[in-house]
Amino acid sequence: MHDLADVRVLVYRRFAERGEPPRPEEVAAELGIGTPEALEALRALHDAHLLVLDDDRRRIVMAHPWSAVPLGFVVAGTRVKWWGGCAWDSFAIPALVGEPCLVATHCPGCGRALALDVCPDEPPTADLVAHFLVPIPRMWDDVMFACGHQALFCSEEHVGRWLRETRNPRGVILDLRTLWLLATRWYAGRLTREYRRRSPDEARALFGELGLSGPFWGGEAPEPEPAVERGLARTEPALLTRSGPAASAWKAAGAGPASDV
Ligand SMILES: [Zn+2]
């Protein structure tokens, strides 16, 4: 007998212990089931956004926060090294495996190599920033693209440089303390059977505790400021002061308040 939780925990723990996911045949052997059953379970987990399979729906590509393919982040523990799916994911791994890790990547704005120690129990102090391009409600439209665009930068200025060069809309910028708090809290319990995905309301509540609100995070836009003198209302309700045009662009693309993360 097996249930999806057994398969999910096996995949996540294998990633944590060995740095790579099990093949479907290994899942089957481990749980004493047939490979077709294992594949069926993996596909159900994929459809539930608890892991990501390749286009053939056979090979595990990601089981957040781990990736089987390079997405720009290397996370090195004392014994195992992993591909981190993104800045958010890479910052979650030390707390999940319970040891400090070296997180290495490149600043997309200038190409400089960035490396920092990330601990399980306190946020790093490096003076870098994270930029998330894709709003949370849109993340699973193309989760590999979304993860591939949650990066660390030298500075806000280098985020701006990269946005101009790539003509991408501005997403949101986080300091490393906020990123670390988000990552460790978001993924807490991921290796246990009891873990379950947050509902949109639970996700918004967690984001809100960290001061992350507004449409980018799956919340409502702030109330427009009262019309100023002589009835001149703002044409653009201030979406997110730090996210600027991106929020509008994604909103136009249909990002609603629903959150699926
Ligand atoms: Zn840079």
TrEMBL record:
Question: Which InterPro entries does the record match to this protein?
Answer: MerB, MerB_lyase_sf
Query: Which domain of life does the UniProt lineage start with?
Result: Bacteria
For this protein, the record's Gene3D superfamilies field holds: 3.30.450.410
Q: Where is the composition biased (Low complexity)?
A: 243-261
What terms describe the molecular function in GO for this protein?
alkylmercury lyase activity
Q: Where is this region: Disordered?
A: 242-261
Q: Which SUPFAM superfamilies does this chain map to? A: NosL/MerB-like
Q: Please identify the protein, giving its name as recorded.
A: Alkylmercury lyase
Recorded source organism is: Sphaerisporangium album
